C-alpha cells in the first residue's frame, strides 16, 4: 500500500515585507487562503492512485482536481493549523516574528491558540484510520504543516518514506508499507 502526500499548488500571494499588527496578520492570512495559485504539472510518480482525500480549503481542492480524476473526498480534518496572534493588535512586528511566536505558543499549548498539537495529531489520525481501511494506493492533498505531522504518524504506523522539513508545493511524497 502506498500513500502519497501532496502539498497544494504554490500560492501567488507573497509575504508582507513590513511590520504588521495582529489584525493585519489575520487579514493577510485571509488573503492567503483566497489567493491565486501557480498551477503546474504534477508528477504522479507512475502510481495509479485509487482514491484521493483532500483538505477542503480552495488551494488544496484545486490541486486535488489537478492531480486526480476520480471522486475526491474533501475533509476539514486535513486543513492547515490556523494562526492566532498572541500579541495585542496594536503591536507591529515582522510577519516571520509573529509566526515564530504563534508556533511557540502553539507548541506550548498557550491559551491564545484555539487548537492544540494533541488535537491536530488526533484529527490526522482520524484521517489515517479512514485511509488505511481502504488498503489501496491513496493520494492525500494538504498543507505543509499537516504533512509534517502526517509523516510522523505514518512512520509510527510502519510506513517508510522520504524526510522533508518544508514540503515542496505540487510534489508527491510517497510512503509505503511493506
Give a count of the beta strands, DSSP E runs of length 2 or more. 9
* Helix vs. strand class: alpha/beta
User: In angstroms, what separates the terminal alpha carbons?
Assistant: 8 Å
Q: State the helix count.
A: 5
Q: Beta-strand level of the residues, as a percent range?
A: 15-25%
Please bin the fraction of helical residues.
Answer: 25-40%
Please trace the helix and strand order, writing H or E for each element: EEEHEEHEEHHEHE
Choose one word for the global shape: globular
Q: Give average pLDDT, whole number.
A: 93
Our Rg estimate from Cα atoms comes to 17 Å
Strand order of the largest sheet: 6-5-8-1-9
Short characterization:
The chain is 38% helix and 19% strand. The protein is an alpha/beta fold and 178 residues long.
